[in-house]
Task: structure prediction
Amino acid sequence: RPDGQVIDVMKNFAPIYGDWNTKKGQYNWQKLVTCAAYYQYDWGSEKAHGALADTKATLYCFKKMNQLPV
Result:
């Protein structure tokens, strides 16, 4: 990543979703499909777990979390 910034969408989504883990003292990370459903992402004819489909869903979720146009 010499010129870029790494953003972990699931790390950022965990407190938004709010599933607190008392044992670990932190929010549980969620699956991409959970995040996508939370933001009402439409998979269309694509299915989760394909590289391109997951990339599109991740970008959509990132934009929704940051209130950017999708």
About this structure: The first strand starts at residue 20 and ends at 21.
